[in-house]
Amino acid sequence: MAKLKANDVGLFLNTGTTAVPVWKVLACLTATDIDLAVEELNGDSKCGIDREAGDVTWTGSFEGFFKLDPTSTEVSGENLLEIAQAKTKKEWKISNSDDSYYRAFTAYISSYNESAPYNEFVTFSGELNVSGTVATAPTP
Bigger pLDDT: 55 or 20? Predict the structure, then answer.
């Protein structure tokens, strides 16, 4: 059984359009996550226990090292700060190079942090509030 290494997966931001995507990788990324939570509908009563799945909430997170001079194929802290301040939804994907591992979604940056401890590299981190569903394969 082949296993997927985290080093082969990146978080990408679409800087183009939905019709003509231009995917840029988050530079110097050290971690990315995507999490699903299902709210529970609780209908417990004297008639018995009745619990069902309710609303689904997706969130994502990322962290990495701040890069002052990202290349034309990269996104880093300055870009992320601008996107967070604009409060706009963007298209994101987490994938490997051949898209055999693929998670794509629309989200806005709901929190953003830059950290600069003395004698260490400046890092960035953030949370993504996902709207809708998460695609598991590219659209043909």
Answer: 20
